[in-house]
Amino acid sequence: MHHERGQHQVFCGLTGIIWLHRKIQDAFFLVVGSRTCAHLMQSAAGVMIFAEPRFGTAIIEDRDLAGLADAHRELDRVVTRLLERRPDIRMLFLVGSCPSEVIKLDLARAAERLSATFSPRVRVVDYTGSGLETSFTQGEDACLAALVPSLPATTDTTPSLLVVGTLADVVEDQFRRQFAALGIARVDFFPPRRSTELPAVGPATRFLLAQPFLRDTAQALERRGATHLPAPFPLGAEGTRGWLQAAADAFAVSPATFTAATAAAQDRAERALAHYRPQLAGKRVFLFPDSQLEPVLARFLARELGMTLVEVGTPFLHRAHLAADLALLEALPTTTRLTEGQDVDAQLDRCRAARPDLVVCGLGLANPLEAEGLTTKWSIELVFSPIHGFDQAGDLAELFARPLLRRQRLAL
Ligand code: SF4
C-alpha cells in the first residue's frame, strides 16, 4: 500500500446532493454557498430538469460578508419563502459550503432555530458538503451521519437489519425480495425514500454497508448501539453473494435456504458477466482515486472479468470496512499497486507510461487523457448508476465494456 500526498483533482461533497435528492423524495437540499457552488450543482446535475426542483442554492452575496446577523436573517427569509411555497417538503437540509465556512456561518444554530419554527411539519438538518480535502462521495457520508441522531430509538431485542447507503429504488426492491426469501423479516434501508420513514435503531440493529465511503455514518450508528456486519460490497456476483451471506450468517439462515433464495439470481449474474468477459479479460485498467469505490471495483474487474489491474487509487481507505474486498484482491495471483491519497501529476506520469487499455477517473482528467489517445470511464457515473446486486452485475460490466467498444469503433 502506497500513500501519496500532493495536488488532487476531485469534486466536492455537494455532488452527493444529485443522488441523495432523488432518493429522499420529500427532502430539499439548500446549499448555503456562492455562485460557484450553484454552477457546480447545475453542471453536475447536467440535463436533469424538474418541474419542482428539490435542491437549490442560497447565494451568499458580498454584502453578507459584512455581517453574520444579516446572513442569518437572509437565510431565514429564503427558507420561509421556500417552505411556504412548497408544502411537499418535509425535510430541509442546510448544506454548508466553503464560503459559508469561511464566514463561519453557524448552520447548526440556523438548523436548530428553523427546526423550532417549522416543526413538526419540517425537520431541518445541517451538514457540510464543502471541502477541497475531501472526495465527492463524502457528501453522502456527512448527510447520513447528520441524520443518524434523528433516527428513532428502539429497545426491541429482536434483531433487525439495516442497509446503509443510497441505493436506486429498483435495487432496494430487489434486495427487499432477497432478504424476504432468506426469511429476514425486519429490514430497513437508510436513507429511506421518505423522511417520515426514518428507521428505528438500537442495540439489536445489525447493519450492512452498501457503499464503502460511509465511515462517519457507520460510527454514528455504532454509537447508537448498532452492530456492523463485515462483508464484501455488493458489486458483481461474488460481492453480492458475500454481502447477502453476511446477513444470512448474522440471522442464522440455513445454507439450504440461502441457496434456494440466491442460486437463480447468482446464476443470472454469472451468465451476464460471461457475456462481457471476452471483451474485458486481459485488458489493463488504471483506477485514479475519486469515488472511494475503486478497491471494490478493482476486485470485481479482476476477479469476475479477468481484467489486469495496473494501479488502484482511492482517496481514503477504510481498512475495516474494506477488509473482505482487500482480502479477495490480495488472493489474486498478481499483486497490484494500491495507492491512498493522490499526487495527480506523479500518477498521471505513471498512467501515461503504463498506457492502460482503460482509465477510470474523474471528469477533470478524462478529457485530457482521451485527447492523448487513452480510453476513459468517468468514475462519477458509477455512483449515479444502479450497479449493486445480482441483477445489475451485467450492467456494471457493460459500463466498462462500452468505452472500449467505442474506442474500437473509432479506430476502425
Ligand atoms: Fe467549490 Fe467549495 Fe462550493 Fe464545492 S463547496 S463548489 S469546492 S466553493
From TrEMBL:
First and last residue of the signal peptide: none
GO molecular function: 4 iron, 4 sulfur cluster binding; ATP binding; metal ion binding; oxidoreductase activity, acting on iron-sulfur proteins as donors; oxidoreductase activity, acting on the CH-CH group of donors, iron-sulfur protein as acceptor
Transmembrane residue ranges: none
Catalyzed reactions: chlorophyllide a + oxidized 2[4Fe-4S]-[ferredoxin] + 2 ADP + 2 phosphate = protochlorophyllide a + reduced 2[4Fe-4S]-[ferredoxin] + 2 ATP + 2 H2O
Cofactor note as given: Binds 1 [4Fe-4S] cluster per heterodimer. The cluster is bound at the heterodimer interface by residues from both subunits.
Record keywords, A-Z: 4Fe-4S, ATP-binding, Bacteriochlorophyll biosynthesis, Chlorophyll biosynthesis, Iron, Iron-sulfur, Metal-binding, Nucleotide-binding, Oxidoreductase, Photosynthesis
Binding site for [4Fe-4S] cluster: 12, 37, 98
Domain Nitrogenase/oxidoreductase component: from-to ranges: 12-403
GO BP field: light-independent bacteriochlorophyll biosynthetic process; photosynthesis, dark reaction
Family from the record: Belongs to the BchN/ChlN family.
Function comment: Component of the dark-operative protochlorophyllide reductase (DPOR) that uses Mg-ATP and reduced ferredoxin to reduce ring D of protochlorophyllide (Pchlide) to form chlorophyllide a (Chlide). This reaction is light-independent. The NB-protein (BchN-BchB) is the catalytic component of the complex.
Subunit structure: Protochlorophyllide reductase is composed of three subunits; BchL, BchN and BchB. Forms a heterotetramer of two BchB and two BchN subunits.
Protein name in the entry: Light-independent protochlorophyllide reductase subunit N
Protein's gene: bchN
